[in-house]
Every structure is written in structure tokens, then in C-alpha cells.
TrEMBL record, chains A, B:
Keywords: Aminoacyl-tRNA synthetase, ATP-binding, Cytoplasm, Ligase, Nucleotide-binding, Protein biosynthesis. One of its GO terms (molecular function) is histidine-tRNA ligase activity. The lineage of its organism: Bacteria, Pseudomonadati, Bacteroidota, Flavobacteriia, Flavobacteriales. It comes from Christiangramia antarctica. This is Histidine--tRNA ligase. Its main location: cytoplasm. Belongs to the class-II aminoacyl-tRNA synthetase family. The keyword Protein biosynthesis applies. Homodimer. Signal peptide: none annotated. The gene is hisS. Its EC number is 6.1.1.21.
Length: 457, 457
């Protein structure tokens, strides 16, 4: 019995239309990456397990797909782990490779491994799939693409400015107007913790604060109290729950709270630098906004934190994010390499463009004209024209079999091919081509040059 | 201690230059695929093991990378296999997914699974990586890209004609002139076996014949004798060892041998059809040649067999191959779907283009101009120009730190950036930009529009 075919849960097949739409997004991003001077690298789909394990926390380790060693893998297996039937303990002796979990750790590994070939600051981009053994759910997959741009080897805040402009450029090119680029700074968050005397509870504090959007002020405060932050401390930072106004006004609002914290004020200076630069070089269609609740993977970031929200009215989580991390490559032995980078969420951007009908029509149109097949002799005549059209850059096809006319027409229709050409006895004798516009039904008898002109127009 | 970073054997990191060169090849192939009416699909990197196992023979099964189940995978492990320490027997109970081994089986699975959404004949292309646990060696990797185009759902020989034209179009676009597209037909090979009464030894016979190029006539005959093919039988097919002349002359030569074999003559008719069509529509820079020793994965192919050889003088195995297989989707329960397809060998094409210096120069040039950083005030002036240049489609960068001039110039030089711009106090006052051509050292003071014009020319 033949197997009924299926694919693993959390993975996807992409149809021609989906591939073309995804490529459109990726090509747009790639184009802007290049325009901004980023260079592409690619790394292997699987890395040595030692490269990945321990870099994403305990939960991350669990979600990394491990590859079974080839051959007689049990030969070197940890006998004790087998005896105890301890899955976790056994892994390292039967699996030494694992699928990439993100692009950041492989990038750090790449930088350290190739440090002598690289000119720093190194501006790289990378668009490749990653894999996570997460529980699949709507919009969450076990295989998905990441589109990352990072710079390592410079602490200049011009990088941050540039990433704000890059987000603006990409979303503008995608015709997705009105996104909000939210920015925050780890130093500002540290400053808050410092002024309320809760440095030791920085993570708890920011994890709670990060939820303000979703659960509201009261619930956030409740969570802070539960984590041992005093009511007096919360009172002290009350203004951050009601920050209003534009970027500058918000900055003013938090400056009052942070004035006693050197770290906090350093964060404010950074935010000001970025905002002023952007004010001097206005964004095309995006808006830069300060969001002091933004934390993301806080442990990671040391300076700027970015997140991009879809235009108002579109229900969607963030469609991009990033930030600065001061010691990206330290885990692989190369100290003092500050990095900053951003990422684009391909799958979510896809959904947003779909919802707003922003995919250009021409993406789908792959083949322009189908030649109807009337038999071998006519087909040779048709194929000669097809070949010449292709050399003119016009995507053309001959239906391969002399099936019934209706079937061939239906094929053109189903595939959204806008034109068909009929080449029967009469056309051959007169060296003509009968071009039919599928939608209007209009027909013209043309010579070859007229055919080219018509199809190109 | 930090780990010394490395990657698994048989895998590769790709530097910016390598990615750009690889993308150039893939984009050229993709462009012609589209021109010929092929549509892209993508399938997941890993499939259910049942989809892949048993499709590539015993050796293939061994070379498939298996993914360890997530979580407590030992819970469902085959206790008996563990007791016996039987690695092979244990696999299916601890691993249910495996990395794609080629693009053909996933394509067959896709066609069957999505048969109701597909218009047949279905012309699809697919450019994605595959993984094999082969012993790595020069030019053989554990992760590599395949670039495939296939048509399913038509037995028309126009497809074969089209694939010959497609090879010609791609290699011509890559400026790789003089490749030889070798063609053979499974039916011709069957015919040979039939006329010498060795139908039961078809595989042995063709495996030996396929080596003619490498080991020579005597060694091939010796191998045939060892496999139990009689000296009289070999005598009968002697002419195929000395086939000379052009395509038509070779056809004539084998027609004499095959005239008593219906199958063989059917193969000859197919070859003639393809050759005559190509004669009527001459190839641009490739040559079509008959090679009756060509077998490739014989078990697979039922009609045409293709292989592409690099231009004479370039030592390289085949840079492409393919053929017709009459029952592609039968393994997944969809009968009677004839398919024919070809593949491009990305890694080898890369090596050939490298050897013949055929990569266009402009591929490498990513960033066109670097603005030198003189400090924050000057940088804002520079960044404004950088932003505007990017909107003009000119890839521009600002060096992020106000490092020493020499260091910044060296950076431009190392990165092959052809121009730098200096924007000091004087330039700012006069709203000018000093453009320096890195190679000649020539400098010009320009206004913004002149700068754009110069950089675009």
C-alpha cells in the first residue's frame, strides 16, 4: 500500500504563489540591506552541538533539534544513561550536531572563526531558515526564515540611527506605510531599577513592565508587588505608567525619574542622539516612538532595544526587533566586540501584506503566453516562436500535448496566463500568430515582431 | 574557557564574496526557469522518515540524516533494540523525521499531497539545500544546494527538447560557452541488452558501459565478461565502442544493432525527434551529442537520459543531469504520472566559472561609496547625503567612528569600495562633497547632484 503523504507538524509546503510572494519580501529586504552596505554570509544548517547548547537557556536547549550520529551510533553511547533510560543525559553521546536555532549565535561563531579575514566594523546580513521544536500553533512554525542585519566592531550610535532608517526603507519599499519603530534602552531600564533600589530584581521588574500593553497597569503593579518590589518603589516610577506626548516629552518625563542614576542618564543621552539624528533626516513613512516598557530578550541587550509594530488597525505582534549587545562574541573567546542588529519577521510581514492587499499583482504573473498545441508539425512552428520570445525575455510556453483545445484553454486560465497563441495551418502559411487575450477574448493576427511588441507592452 | 569555534565536517561557511557569486548563479538559473514557464515550490527541510526511507536504496537510507525526537525520546524507544544495542533497529522508535536527501522525492510527495490544487502538466522548479551523511571529500559536501526543474503529467517529447534548450539558455547566460549536452535513452540501453540476450543483466551491462570514458574499452569488456556476458554478445555490440561522427551518424550506427529490438527502435525514434527539433532551432552555444554509454541512475529513468559536460579543457565531472522517469509519484499512490527533469550542479558550476574567470566584476562590488567620519557634526552632514544616495539606489555607507583617516581609507580599500567622500568643515560650509576615486587617487569637489551623477555613471 502506498503511504498517504504528509509533512511533519509545524512545517510547510509553499505553493508557487506563496514562494513568489515570500521571495518578493526577501528580495525587497535584501535590496535595502545591500543599499545600506551590508554584506551577505551563509552558515551551515547544522552546527556542532557545543556551538549551540547552553546559549539559549534551558528552554532553548530543549527546543534545539538534535541530529542523530550516523552509522552505529550506539557504539559510543553513554552506557549509564541508557541503563537509567535518561534521555537528556544520553543526547551528547549519540548526537554531536544540531539544527541552527537562530542566526545570531552562528554569526558570532562565524565572526570569531573568520576574524582574520574580516574587516571591522563588519556589516553582515543573513537570510536563512532556523528550526525550533516549539509546540506549533497559529503563526508559529518549527521551520521559519530569519532575516537579520548586524554590525559588529563599533560602538557608534550612528548604527542605531541607520537601523531605524533601514526599517523605514524596507517597509516603505514594501508599501507598508505607518509602521511604528519602538525604541528603548537597557540603560534606562537599569536606571529605573536603580532609582527604586531594585537592581537585584531588574529582570522581574522589566518582565512585568513589558506586559503593560497586554495586561494593563494594575496587573503589572500586582506582579511587581508579588516579586517583592515595594509599593513605595512602584510609587516612585508611577510616571512611566502614564507617559504621554511625543518622543521629546516622554524623554523629559523619564529624565525626572532618572536624574540620580548615571546609567539611566547615559541611556537617555543615547536615545536623544538617535532621535535628534532622525529628526534631522525625517523618515519616509514610519514613526519612531519611545516605549520605555520594551524589554524583549533583556539578558541579551545592553543598549538600544528595537521593536516594530504593524500599522494601526492590523492585529499582529511585532514584525521586527533587535538591539545592541555588548559582548556578542565573548562566548567564543573574542572579547570586546560590540554588536547591534535587527531582524525582520518574514511570516508576519507576509500576513500583514496579505491582509492589506499590498502584494503587487505582477508577482504572480509568471508565464505571459501559452502556445496552443495542434500537433507535431504546428508545434515546431510554435516552439520556434516560443524560443525567440524567451530570448526577448518574455516567459512563454507551448502546451506539451495536442490535447483538446478546451483543455488547453482551461489550463491557461487556471494558471493565470494572460495570453494564448494559436498557430494552425493558416497561420503557418502566412507566417502569422493569432494572439488571444484571455480575459477580453479579443484576437489579433500578428507577425512575429508585432507579437513581441504586443506582449511587451 | 571559551570553545574554539568550528563547523561540522562536510559543511561550509560562505563569505560575502562566495554568497554573491553563488547567488549570481542561482539567480541566472532562476531567471531562465521562469522564462521557460517553470513555477517555484519549496518543501520543508525535514520530512517524515517514512517519506524518505526506502526511496534511495540501502546505501541511501544510511546516508540520510535522522533527527532525534524531542523530549523524553527514550520513553517510546524499542526496548529490544536497546537491549541488543542495535543502532539500525532502534532508529525508527527514537527518530521520526529526517533531513531531505534530494528534491525529487519531496517533489513527488508534494505532487501527490497537493494533486487537487495543481494544474497538470505541472512545471515546477526548486532550489533548496539537501543533506547527505556521505564521507566528505574534495567537491563533495554534507550540505549542498540542488537546482531542479521538472515537468509531471505529460509524456510529450517537447519537454525533452525544452530541457535541452533550457541547459543551453542557462549556460549561455552564464557566459559558459561550449558545454556538451549528452543525451541517451533508457530504451536504447534496454535494446542493447535485448539483442545480446542479456535482459536479465541490464544493470550490470550498463554499469560497465557507463565507465567507458574512465577505464577504456578493454576494461569495460573485461567487466562485462566477469558479469557473465558472453564474448559473442560483446562482439555483437562492438560498434558501440567505436561510434564516431555526428549525432545522425551515431544514430545510424546503433540503428543497425538495434533493428531487431522494438524497444531499442522506440528509443531511437525519441532521440531522432529531439535531435531534429534542435536542428530546426539551433542552440546558442551548447552542443547536443549522443552518448550511448550514458546511464546515470538507470533504475530511475525510463526514457531520455541527460548529462552536461563542462567545456573541453576544464577538468570537472558533469555539471548537470536528468532524464525521464515514468512513474515518479507511484510510490505515494498516484499512478501514471510521467515526469522528466533536469538538475544543475551549483558547486561544480561555481568551480568552472571560477577557473575560467567568468564571474562578472560587478557581482562583488556591493558598496559604491564610503563617507569618511570626521566627528558627530560632520557625520550628520554626511549621513544626510548617505540617506539621499541610498534613495537614489546607490549603496553608500558612513564609517561609524571618527577613527584615523588612514584606518578609514584602509577599510574602504580592503572592502573594495571604489569611492570615498570627505566632508570636513570646508565642504559643509560650501555644501560640497569631496569625492575620491580610490584607485586613481583623483579628487573632485562636487555638489550633491554632481555627486549622484558621478556615482551613477
Amino acid at each position: 500500500m502506498a503511504q498517504k503523504p504528509s509533512i511533519p507538524k509545524g512545517t510547510r509546503d509553499f505553493s508557487p504563489e506563496e514562494v513568489l510572494k515570500r521571495n518578493y519580501i526577501m528580495e525587497t529586504i535584501r535590496h535595502e540591506f545591500k543599499n545600506f552596505g551590508f554584506q551577505p554570509i551563509e552558515t551551515p544548517s547544522f552546527e556542532n552541538s557545543a556551538t549551540l547548547m547552553g546559549k539559549y537557556g534551558e528552554e532553548g536547549d530543549r527546543l534545539i533539534f538534535k541530529i542523530l550520529n550516523s552509522g552505529d551510533y550506539l557504539k559510543k553511547a553513554d552506557k549509564n544513561a541508557i541503563k537509567e533510560m535518561d534521555s537528556t543525559a544520553l543526547i551528547s553521546s549519540i548526537s554531536e550536531k544540531a539544527l541552527r536555532y537562530d542566526l545570531t549565535v552562528p554569526f558570532a561563531r562565524y565572526v570569531v572563526q573568520h576574524q582574520n579575514e574580516i574587516e571591522f566594523p563588519f556589516k553582515r546580513y543573513q537570510i536563512q531558515p532556523v528550526w525550533r521544536a516549539d509546540r506549533p500553533q497559529k503563526g508559529r512554525f518549527r521551520e521559519f526564515y530569519q532575516c537579520d542585519a548586524d554590525v559588529v566592531g563599533s560602538k557608534s550610535l550612528w548604527q542605531e540611527v541607520e537601523f531605524v532608517q533601514l526599517y523605514d526603507a524596507v517597509f516603505n519599499s514594501l508599501n507598508l506605510k505607518g509602521v511604528t519603530i519602538k525604541i528603548n534602552n537597557r540603560k534606562v531600564l537599569s536606571g529605573f531599577a536603580e532609582v527604586i533600589g531594585a537592581q537585584d530584581k531588574l529582570i522581574d521588574f522589566t518582565v512585568a513592565l513589558d506586559k503593560l500593553d497586554k495586561i494593563g497597569e494594575e496587573a503589572v503593579k500586582k506582579e511587581m508587588l508579588e516579586k517583592g518590589i515595594s509599593p513605595e518603589a512602584i510609587e516612585k516610577i508611577q510616571p512611566i505608567f502614564n507617559l504621554n506626548g511625543n518622543f521629546s516629552e516622554k524623554i523629559e518625563g523619564i529624565s525626572n525619574i532618572l536624574k540620580s542614576s548615571k546609567t539611566g542618564m547615559a541611556g537617555i543621552e543615547e536615545l536623544k542622539f538617535i532621535q535628534q539624528a532622525i529628526q534631522n533626516m525625517p523618515l519616509q513613512t514610519a514613526t519612531l516612538d519611545l516605549d520605555v516598557t520594551l524589554a524583549r530578550g533583556l539578558n541579551y541587550y545592553t543598549g538600544a532595544i528595537f521593536e516594530v509594530a504593524a500599522p494601526e488597525g492590523v492585529k499582529m505582534g511585532s514584525i521586527g526587533g533587535g538591539g545592541r549587545y555588548d559582548d556578542l562574541t565573548g562566548i567564543f573567546g573574542l572579547k570586546d566586540m560590540s554588536g547591534v542588529g535587527i531582524s525582520f519577521g518574514l511570516d508576519r510581514i507576509y500576513l500583514v501584506l496579505e491582509e492589506l492587499c499590498l502584494f503587487p499583482d505582477q508577482i504572480k504573473a509568471s508565464t505571459k503566453v501559452l502556445f496552443i498545441n495542434f500537433g507535431d508539425r504546428e508545434s515546431l512552428y510554435a516552439m520556434k516562436a516560443v524560443s525567440k520570445l524567451r530570448k526577448e525575455g518574455i516567459a512563454a510556453e507551448l502546451f506539451p500535448d495536442d490535447a483538446k483545445m478546451g483543455k488547453q484553454m482551461k489550463y491557461a486560465d487556471k494558471r493565470d496566463i494572460p495570453f494564448t497563441v494559436l498557430t494552425g495551418q493558416e497561420e503557418m502559411e502566412q507566417e502569422k500568430y493569432t494572439l488571444k487575450h484571455m480575459k477580453s477574448g479579443e484576437q489579433d493576427q500578428l507577425n512575429f515582431q508585432e507579437l513581441v511588441d504586443k506582449l511587451k507592452s
